[in-house]
Amino acid sequence: MRIVFLALLLTGCVSTAAKIVTAPVRIVGAGINTAVDATTTTQREADEDRGRAIRKQEERDRKAVKKAEKERRKAEREATRRFD
């Protein structure tokens, strides 16, 4: 009877000890998955980033065209003043 009781107690201790020993490994494993998820980019995120970059470039192009048009009109006005 004592042997059966002792065996049951030890089984619980071994199970608990195994959980304690493997806990740091499980925590590190979960951290690796989180780190990998944080550093990888999904196709959707890549598409959004590319779209954002394209829109910014288009905005810069529009501003450049607007500035060039403004300077052209200014040059025309100055040219017509010289001949007046």
TrEMBL record:
Q: From start to end residue, where is composition biased (Basic and acidic residues)?
A: 44-84
The record's section on InterPro entries has: DUF6726 (IPR046613)
Which superkingdom does the taxonomy of this entry point to? Bacteria
The UniProt annotation puts the region (Disordered) at 41-84
The residue range of the signal peptide is 1-17
Which keywords, in A-to-Z order, does the entry hold? Signal
- The molecule here is called Lipoprotein
